Amino acid sequence: MGLRMKFNLILLAVFLVGFGVTGWITNELLQRNARGEVVRNAELMMETALAIRGYTVNQVAPHLQLQLLRVFLPQSVPAYAATETLNVLRKKYPDYSYKEAILNPTNPRDRTTDWEADLVHAFRDNADKKEIAGERDTPTGRALYIARPLQIKDEACLACHSVPSAAPASMIKLYGEANGFGWKMNEIVGAQIVSVPMSLPIKNADRAFRTFMISLFAVFAVVFIVLNLMLSWMIVRPIQKMSKAADQVSTGDFAIQEFSELGKDEIGVLGASFNRMRRSLQKAMQMIEG
């Protein structure tokens, strides 16, 4: 096996190990960053919903008290305002969703599905848990969700949700007496759930990973070619010339040109040593023949 082949095998082995380790680390970082981006989007959406709820409670509902005596305005309900506002966002970004999922809601559209009910019961079973995050498959692809408990902390909520007789007549007229009652103080009745698609950030991460690995491979290919050219020009060719010259000298043929002694590297030192050996051998042969 020649020197060039050994060098290339070692270089290839080092590259494959480095390529694999670098690829694994890069993919992990890109996937982690992509998930972090999804989490930030979900948290931003959750905080937006909370801001809408606060705005509705503090700046909208107080101005509708007189109207509420005559007709029930769901727009004055924080949950309704947040859901409706973010539903407008969903017209442009249908994969994003926000829902205030309630086990026993006044508005039937807020009723929990099976997986949402599991989240609510998880909050009920562990009152100290303030947030649950996870991933689930949806018809449009993989999605990340963040859920926070909806707990009755304001007695004003019980005015509409304790018993039908205490609720505004306008609300009973709109939604009936069958749902949304029996709530109790400090009870966890539901969960705020934000769902954000993971497909686009993950796709971008995969694209960045492929681009990086292709670029890394291209750089290696260039380095491989350059190193082989340098190896051939600086090491292999001089050694091949010395080997051929040594064969000629070993047969008594001294009619060869001496190697240059200008270089101070290992090849130059080897050439100078070969020249001295050749001259010494030539003088020895002349003395024997004389």
**Over all CA atoms, what is the radius of gyration?**
39 Å
**Strand-residue fraction?**
5-15%
Order of helices and strands: HHHEHEEHHEHH
User: What characterizes the major β-sheet?
Assistant: 4 strands, antiparallel
- What is the mean pLDDT? 83
Oligomer: single chain
Protein model, in words:
61% of the residues lie in helices and 12% in strands. The chain has 8 helices and 4 strands; from the N terminus they run αααβαββααβαα. The relative contact order is 0.11. It has a 4-stranded antiparallel beta sheet. The protein is of the alpha+beta class and 290 residues long. The two termini are 43 Å apart. The chain is rod-shaped and about 135 Å long. The protein has helices at 3-60, 65-70, 78-92, 114-125, 158-161, 169-175, 199-250, 266-289; strands at residues 97-102, 132-138, 141-151, 188-197.
